[in-house]
Write a sequence for this structure.
């Protein structure tokens, strides 16, 4: 897979960052390991690192202004954030939106079971799904 330069942006100048990412992120993933790493810093550094991490992650800002070791910590966290963002972008591009997979309901079988039992609730129980799921499948299939 060819690398996308938009994801390797934290070493770019502010102007190059703006060109690569004209729109800020709306959200980013924050792992428990980030919290644990920040908590190990001296109290006077914790707030600075957290605020800088949020600013860099949302607005693609470079980490140059933080002193060592804070810049190293934030840089590693941003790498993880970018990786998660890249995986999410690829999943969306491939038609995956996350969450539980769609339930496939055999509407032909449901119709046959209904002619035998005359109750959609009984059909849902026999198929091992909720009656609400069966209703949604019937509605999507034009049977309601």
């Amino acid at each position: 897979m060819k690398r996308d330069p938009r994801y390797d942006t934290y070493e770019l100048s502010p102007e190059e960052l703006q060109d690569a990412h004209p729109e800020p992120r709306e959200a980013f993933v924050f792992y428990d390991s980030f919290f644990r790493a920040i908590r190990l810093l001296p109290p006077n550094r914790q707030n600075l690192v957290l605020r800088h991490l949020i600013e860099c992650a949302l607005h693609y800002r470079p980490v140059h202004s933080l002193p060592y070791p804070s810049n190293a910590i934030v840089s590693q966290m941003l790498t993880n954030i970018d990786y998660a963002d890249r995986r999410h972008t690829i999943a969306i591009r491939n038609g995956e939106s996350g969450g539980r997979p769609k339930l496939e309901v055999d509407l032909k079988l449901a119709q046959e079971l209904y002619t035998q039992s005359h109750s959609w609730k009984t059909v849902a129980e026999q198929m091992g799904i909720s009656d609400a799921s069966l209703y949604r499948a019937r509605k999507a299939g034009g049977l309601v």
About this structure: Helices lie at 14-20, 32-39, 43-59, 70-93, 107-117, 120-127, 131-140. The chain is about 60% helix and 0% strand.
